[in-house]
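[SOLVED] Predicted holo structure with zinc ion

Edit: marking solved, answer below. Original request kept for reference. I posted the sequence and ligand SMILES and asked for the 3D complex as C-alpha cells.
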Amino acid sequence: MIPEDFPEDIQPHLIPQAKGELIYRCLGCGSEFGIEKLLYTCPDCGEVLLIYDKHSERLRQISGALWRRIFDYRKMLKIPALKGIYRYHEFIGTVIPLSSVVWLGEGHTPMVEANAFMQDKANIRFFFKNDGQNPSASFKDRGMASAMSYIRFLIEKGYASEILAICASTGDTSAAAALYASYLPNIKSAVLLPHKKVTPQQLSQPLGSGAKVFEIPGVFDDCMKVVESLADTYNVALLNSKNAWRILGQESYSYEIAQDFDYDMSNKVVVVPIGNAGNITAVMSGFLKFYDTGIITELPKIIGVQSHHANPVYLYYQQDAGRRKFEPVTVKPSTAQAAMIGNPVSMPRVIHLADEYNKKAGKQRVFVVEVTEQEIMDWQLTANRNGHIACTHGGESLAGLVNAVNTGFVNQDETAVVDSTAHALKFAGFQEMYFENRFPPEFEVSPRPELMNAPTLVRPKDLTHVPAPGKPLDGEEFQQFVKRTSEEIASALALTRR
Ligand SMILES: *Cc1c(COP(=O)(O)O)cnc(C)c1O
Ligand SMILES: [Zn+2]
C-alpha cells in the first residue's frame, strides 16, 4: 500500500524520522556517553554498556493502542528500510535515518506451530520461531543489521571513514558480520574463530563473503580475549555482542513475537538458549520496552536454557538470591556449539535486566534451566522428524521448555515460543554423528535407534553393469537396471502391486 492510502491518524507516524537522543549507559557506574563514538565498555570503569533512549517518555505520548496500529500498518509498506528490524525504528535505533539502514532480508521470521504429536509429547502448546530463516541462517543477522546501520550512519555523518569490523565468534556472528560488511563498500571485516570449533558450513560463510578469517587455538572464550585485546589496542570496530548496538537489533525478536500474537502476551512463554547471553538480554529488554510503552500489558515468562556442558548462567541462578556470585566455568564439548561459552560477556546485563523484569512483573518471570546433551539431540531430531528445521540450539530450547513444564516453571495452559536460533543445516554434522553413532564419549550422547536414519545404496547384485557418470547404459541393459532397481526399492518399502 502507498503511504497516501493509510488512515489519516496513522500517516504522521507511518514513516519514522531520525530523531531523539540515544546514549550509552554503564551498568557498573551509571555514567552516560554520547553515541558519536563506538564504545564497547565504560571508559571510566570497564563495565558493559546498554543503549538507552534519553527521551523515552516521548514514546509514551503515543498510546499503546496507536503504536500497535502503527506497526500493523507498517507491515503493509514496501519500503526496504522498514521491511526488517526497523519496522520498530523508534525502539531500535531512533537516531538512524532510513537512508543508513542496511536491510538484507533479516527479521520477521516465521512462527510455526508444532503439530499435535509434538505438543502432546512436550505437554504444552508451542511454536518454533525459525530464526534460521534469516539471511546468514541465524538470529545474529538481527543485531548485525543494527550494528552495521549504525556504522554506516557514523560514516555518513563524517564521524568515521574506512572501518575494519572485527569479531570473535562461535560461528554465526562471523557469518553475519562478514555478510553485512561485504555489502558495504567502506567496511572490511576480519573474524576470529576457535580452530575446529565451528562447523564446516559456518567456516564457509565468512570465507564466501570475502572476510579475512583467522583460526585460533582453544575455545571461544580464548578468541574473545584476543579480539578484546585487538579492540583495546588498534583502530577496529568490535562487532561482538559487547557492542550494545547488536543488543538493540536483537530486541526485534521480542517485538515480532508480540506482534504475531496481536500483542496479547498473557500466558505466553519465550524460550531461548544462552551462550554469550546477548540474546536473552535483548529479549528481556525488548519486552520491557513494549511493556513500558503500553504496547503489551503483560510480560511473558522467559526461560533461558543452558547445556550441562556450558552452564555458568544456570549455576549462578541456582544460588540463593542475595548472595549469588558469578563464576565462569570451563566448557565441555557441546552440540549446542554456538552457545559453548563459559564466561558470557553479557552476564552483567542479564543480572540487571532479569532483576528489573521480575520487579516490573511483580513476580518471578525469568527462569534458567539446564538440559543434557542427550536431551538436546533427541529433541532436535524429534522436532525435525515432525516438520521443523531446528538447529541443535533449537533442540536445546525445546528440551528446556519440556524441563520447565516438568519442574512446574511453566504450566500446561500456557503457550510457548521456542527459539530455533539457526538453521538445522549449519549443524548437520551433529546429526550425522548421531546417525552414525560416532559421538566421542565426552559429548555424552548415545543415539536412540528410533531416531537414527541412514541412506540405503541400491545396487542389484545380479546386474553386471550399472550406470556411472559419463558412462550411461542403453538398450536391454538399461531396461534391466531400471526394472531391478525399482524391484529392490519396492521390496525395501514393502510396496504392493497395483
Ligand atoms: C550466538 C548463538 C547462540 C547464543 O546466543 P547468545 O546471544 O550468545 O546467548 C545460540 N544459538 C545460535 C545458533 C547462535 O548463533
Ligand atoms: Zn562505568
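OP edit: Residues 50 and 244 are 5 Å apart (CA to CA). Thanks to everyone who chimed in.
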